[in-house]
What does this fold into?
Amino acid sequence: MTAVEDKAIDAAARGAPIISVRGLVVGFGDKLVMNGLDLDVRRGEVLGFVGGSGQGKSVLTRAILGLVPKRAGEIRIFGKDRDALSAPERRALEQRWGVLFQNGALFSGLTVKQNIQVPMRETRDISQGLMDELAMLKIALVGLKPDAADKFPSELSGGMVKRAALARALALDPELVFLDEPTSGLDPIGAAEFDDLIATLQETLGLTVFMVTHDLDSLYSICDRVAALADGRVIAEGALGTLLKSDHPWLRAYFHGVRGGRLAGSLLD
Ligand SMILES: Nc1ncnc2c1ncn2[C@@H]1O[C@H](COP(=O)(O)OP(=O)(O)OP(=O)(O)O)[C@@H](O)[C@H]1O
Ligand SMILES: [Mg+2]
It folds into this structure.
C-alpha cells in the first residue's frame, strides 16, 4: 500500500462516526427529554456536549450506553445497533468503552485499586497479581501517586476522585470514553490539569471522547467539535467558532453572557 492510500484510509477511519444517533426519542412518563435527536461522534475526536441544566445531557449519555430505554430512533456504536445484538455480543461491545459518570460514582467501600479492578473482575479471567499490576499502571496513567491505590474515596480530594474514576473508566483499555462533567467541582487549576490529562490520553491512546461539560475553558482547549442540546434536539454541531456565531438564543446567552463573553471575544477577534 502506498503512503497516500495509507493516509486516505486513515482519514476515512478518523471521519467515520463511532457513535451515530438518529431520531432519538426518550421520555419519562408524559415528559419527553429527547425528541428526535441526531448526533454523530467521529473516531478520534473529542466531542464537547453542552446544554442547559436539566436539558438531558446525562440522559442522552445513559441512553447511548443503553441504561435508559428509548421510545424511538436508532443508536449505533461502532456501527452496531445494540438492540439487534445477542447478550454476549452486547457485553463484548460494552467492553470497548469506559464511562466517567457525573459525580465520579466510585464505590465508597472500595479502595481506588479495588474500584479500578471492578470492571476487570466482571469481564476478565485474570489473576489478582496481574489485576494489581494493571491497576497500578492505570493509577500512574492518570497522574495519581502509587499511594493513592489503597485509599478510600473519602480520603481523596475532589481532583483525585476524578482521576481515580477516569482510571476506572480506562480499566479495560477502551477505544471510547464517556465523560459526564469531568471538571465540575474542580478549581480552575485542577480543571485545566484534568483537561491536559484528557488531551494527553486522547492523543497517546487514540481515544474517542464524548464529553458533557459546562466548562467553557474545556470546550476551548480540548474539544475538536461541540454539539449543543436544547428542547430535546441537537441545535448546533461543529467547530466552537461556528457555534459562537449561532443566533440561537440559548447559545447566544451561553457564549456571550457574563462568563462566556470574554472567551467569545478572544476567539472571534
Ligand atoms: N430516571 C428518571 N426519571 C424521570 N426523570 C428523569 C430521570 N432521569 C432524568 N430525568 C429528567 O430528565 C431531564 C434531563 O435530566 P439530565 O440529568 O439528563 O439533565 P442534564 O442536562 O444532565 O443536567 P445537568 O447539567 O444539571 O447535569 C430532567 O428533567 C430530569 O429530571
Ligand atoms: Mg447531567
Remarks:
- The longest strand covers residues 17-28.
- Residues 99-173 form one domain.
- The beta strands are 17-28, 31-42, 46-51, 72-77, 80-81, 97-100, 176-180, 208-212, 225-230, 233-238.
